[in-house]
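Researcher: Structure prediction, please.
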Amino acid sequence: MPYQVYDLNPVDRIMPGAIGDPGKRVFYLQARKGQRLITVVCEKEHVAALSVAAERLLLALAGGDADQVVEPDVDLATTPTLEYPLEPIFHVGQINLGYDESS
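Model: Predicted structure follows.
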């Protein structure tokens, strides 16, 4: 398979989600920039690792002061969900989170 790059910098939205019954769920990760939507299939462990990495990154950017990390008000009734149709472009093998201070 040829190497492909999907550049959504800066991303407008990143959304994990799962479809199906426990034990048989399929996990997805979507990223949106404007009208461009990228959907991939991933594992539950990928979503968990990305969540931990994002939390650690925000804490590091706040100089280690957890009080400076602003947690959003979450209204579960209006929380965004996965967008349909689900058309994943690939299955994630490995996922990383990075931060480019210059941009």
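Model: The helical segments are 44-61.
Researcher: Thanks, that helps.
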